[in-house]
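Quick illustration, no need to memorize.
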Amino acid sequence: MAGHDESKMKLETKRHYLVGPYEALKKGIFITASCLIIFIALRNSLIWHVEQCWGASKNFWSSIWAVFYWLSGENFFNMYIYGVWLLGIFTFTIGNIFFLVLDLTGKPSVFLRYKIQEDKGVPVSWMKYKKALWRCAFNIVVVVLLFQLVMYPLAVLGRMHAGYELPTFATTVLHFTGYMVIEEIGFYYTHRLFHHPWLYKYIHKTHHEWTAPTGITSVYSHPLEHFVGNLGPMGLGPIIMGSHVSIACLWIIIAVVNTTISHSGYHLPFLPSSEAHDFHHLKFNQNYGVFGVLDRLHGTDEQFRQSKNYERHIVLLGLNPAKQLFPNTQKRNAD
């Protein structure tokens, strides 16, 4: 009996070592497959819902595009040159009205709690602001029009187009991804180039007259810098990607609004954080890029990452200012 029990025990042990890994493998495959199925289902569901929203809003966008298409005489030259030019002027103007009133009057005062550099005076001097307005007007009217005329042959060569049919959601996302890569690379390296001592002294110093920026200072720069450093990276994306003009127009609206917010001097709730570029105007040699990827790669954000501004560099999902959520550390002096 003892020998039989011992043999049975050895058999059970052997079965355990054989079946155990097999069961674990089965369980692993089952869990992995289940997770994969859920992921695919959610992914497909998400894409379906996004495409439904895109499709539902397509009538709205189609109506706007139809008007744009009709006003341009169904002509690509008119769309690319005059349409994009006027769209940029309109977006910049509308996007800056709120910040202009806030900067010049300090009202509505409830928003002053979101100002990043609190020690910089509000309201801003009208004389200083008026000087900036004249230069900004020249850049968005004259320099942008010149840029569009110069880039037109490249747009044709790059097979940009402007058919009546709007592109799909997937195409729009793909092109936007390309735009962001081109913008980050183009803006980072041209911006850093303009910080070369000679170029800074004669060209880029104009932009840095404002150590505490405001919305309009996004285009307050030397005309050459605006052409090469601001418009170049933004305008090259649609050309390289061979985009439909409607995608380029959407990109311009988002880019202009984003750079206005980045230069606003305010970290407002539910909007992209302006802490990084505000820090650049404060320190000059930090945060050259748009998205921070190349700054991290080249180490040109080290001071920023060690500052309170970095902790505050988030999208505020409530009404409390970032300074309250991440207050400055108070150092007590020794008695």
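Confidence is low (pLDDT under 50) at residues 13-22, 331-335.
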